[in-house]
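Researcher: First entry.
Model:
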Amino acid sequence: MLVVFEKFLWFVLLFVSIYFCIIVCLSSIDRYYTKSTHIGLERNYHFWNTTLPSLTICPMERLDNTLFADYCRKNGIKGPEKAIFWDFLENLANSTYVNFQNIPQSDQIDQIIKDIGLKPEHYMEVIYNLTVDSTYTPSEVNRTRCVDGQTFIHVRQVLTEYGLCYLGNSRLGEKYSSRYLIFGKYPEFNKYEHERRLIQYLEGSFFEKDVQYTLMGFSSPALDSYIHSAFEVMKVDTNFGYTTDGVVYDPISKEITADDNLERQVT
């Protein structure tokens, strides 16, 4: 009887174990398909490369005097009307949601706009055509450019909440440009950027002590600067204020937290 009882007991235990094994397997499969999955990633320190932040610069003087004079000549705007119309367009080009009240309003402005047949939906096109895209300026001294030593970093003119600005070191596509947003056309080929080695953005490793780039070539006496992620457009809350001089920004990456002298202690 003892032998029979042992065989029966082992049979029950085997049956119960198979049953719960199946339950556990089905539960794991269900959890795999329906529940959140945590994935851990171990990174080699040689590939800890991080894209440097983007920099958007907005000049405070937008319109070009020569282009404006030619526009006025073609549309018959003369004398005091030129100064009135200039004041209107310059304030309009610098307008955003916090200073719309600064745009001058008068019967003279309304009459000028009516005489030349300028519609509100064409305001941005006129401002674009009267603003020089300084990334295409032949003179390198006056050209807006983004450089790292002998390497050019792609810089483009973009349309933002603060009007026409310049963006450097970005990983966004070419659709984010003033020409595409206004006319639906991609920016023209910039031969001056290709005079030297050209990259779209600059990456830096945790172990590189000096990774930097310079965005230069602005003739406006006042500039408004924004620093943001290379994967994002300019944001209002990343404004660093107005400046009339050269400025150096020293961003600190919080992506990697490590002990001091890590780069000299690791194997």
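Researcher: Second entry.
Model:
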Amino acid sequence: MPLIHSEPSYQPPFWLPEGHTQSIYTALFRKITKLIPQRERLTLRDQDFVDLDWYVEGPLSDKPLLIVSHGLEGSSQAQYVRGLVKTMIAQGFNALAWNFRSCSGEMNNKLRFYHSGATDDLDDVIQACVDRGAKHIYLAGFSLGGNLTLKWLGEQGQNHPNLIRKAVAFSVPLHLSSSSRKLARRENGLYTHRFLQTLLSKAKEKAVLFPTAVDVAILQRIKTLREFDDVITGPLHGFKDAEDYYEQNSALYFLDKIQVPTLVVNAQNDPFLSPECLPASLACQWENVFLELPTQGGHCGFYPSDYRGTLWSEQRAMNWFLNKETINYVE
């Protein structure tokens, strides 16, 4: 499909002039209230667990079900997750927001964590929904969760469950290697520091549980996310190093195999994303993936100038899922 441009496109308020402020303000100051989920622990195929937050009325078969995957070191309680859930509940959807391994406030049992390509866990979550009667499933992912969602869809190819109706992914590091290099820049030090604080804390906890598998001394020397992926994420999940992990799991390499109508929205001023994550020249090669590249929005930001409780991204996802969008195709 060609590159697309929706109407109206995102316009930030004047006091959020660029990508950093658009990313940070939404993450720190937006609050979503009056959503109380039912928490469930799902046992995975390897006998580890993930925690699920359900927002359901009646049998799963009665309404379309939205499954939302969060970003790096996020959770089912992230504002961007809860905001989309609230928006789609108002449109008659049920929703499930799930926590990756170690992201629900309790460390998982196995040596492995989660990562950008751990689609086996998403597959288990989707299968649990199918087994419980879901008939119409919609997928949404943010950042790392967007990469995970797109990779899963590409891996399924023609064999995807026919009850998967549509998908949307926002702020996706489609090319993980170049995105990690951009995050390592000095101007992105705030984000790197924030992510590493919790990632290293989790790795140290794993070192206590699995002392022969995680070297605490190495952890002290890690200064970037790529270094973390080189010595922790990659080796713990069966990859040679960070680059091997990035190359095997970047969603960019799976988009041409997706058979479900899928919208990918990446802001051009997203401080996390490299030019390779904005692949306008490739859009015409994808049969079922629609790429939208608004000039503004930051990373999972999209706080609109006329904010009334809903982000532009949530309105965009709703319009996509409900076939209400007005699309201009850019050749």
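Model: Note on the second entry: Residues 308 and 315 are 11 Å apart (CA to CA).
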